[in-house]
Specification:
CATH topology of the largest domain: SH3 type barrels
Shape: flat
Radius of gyration: 21 Å
Number of helices: 0
Order of helices and strands: EEEEEEEEEEEEEEEE
Strand content: over 45%
Largest sheet: 6 strands, antiparallel
Structural class: mainly beta
Number of domains: 3
Strand order of the largest sheet: 1-6-2-3-4-5
CATH class of the largest domain: Mainly Beta
Length: 187
């Protein structure tokens, strides 16, 4: 059990028969009336975000969620398969639990969020940046480096992102997994 005084970003709690993580919160003490806490909660099972206001001092049930390091092995019609790096156990995870699954590359290390009491996987966290090879993109024109014009490029995982005109095919680039955008070329 925790009270609203214990709220912090990332705290996981059981609420409405689901597990939520606090995305942001704000303690409010109006001039008239009791204090309250305004929160933005994200469901770890569905990904939905909801706004909820708690009275100051209200108790909530915390949920123990662990991050476990796994390696991505392969994907098939049963889902995405990961291997625990300590026990070498393999677990399949549905695509809906993986944000930006099209940026997963075989052999890549990820963190899997697991509910400690039920051992149920809740989601997969990719590293902030991944290095991927461009398998196809249109050739850029010489001298087109001054503008912020973008062109489509296909990555080795099959994902399509927008890259600057000067980036060519067979170039290793860094991709931001939080929004799926081009970050920089890898030297």
């Amino acid at each position: 059990m925790a009270s609203t005084a214990d709220f912090k970003n990332g705290l996981c709690m059981e609420f409405n028969n689901d597990i939520f993580s606090i995305v942001e919160f704000q303690h409010v003490k109006p001039g008239k009336g009791p204090a309250f806490v305004r929160t933005k909660l994200k469901s770890l099972t569905t990904g939905k975000v909801l706004d909820k206001t708690f009275s100051a001092g209200e108790k909530v049930t915390t949920a123990r969620v662990e991050k476990r390091s796994h390696q991505f092995i392969y994907a098939d019609d049963m889902g995405y398969h990961f291997m625990d790096m300590e026990t070498f156990d393999q677990i399949p995870i549905e695509e809906k639990l993986i944000e930006r699954a099209n940026l997963l590359k075989e052999g890549q290390l990820v963190d899997i969020l697991v509910h400690a009491e039920t051992e149920k996987p809740l989601g997969v966290e990719l590293p902030p940046f991944v290095e991927l090879m461009i398998t196809y993109t249109e050739p850029g024109l010489k001298g087109d480096t001054a503008t912020n014009t973008l062109k489509p490029a296909t990555l080795e995982t099959g994902a399509e992102i927008m890259v600057p005109l000067f980036v060519e095919q067979d170039t290793l680039i860094k991709v931001d997994t939080r929004d799926g955008s081009y970050s920089e070329r890898v030297k």
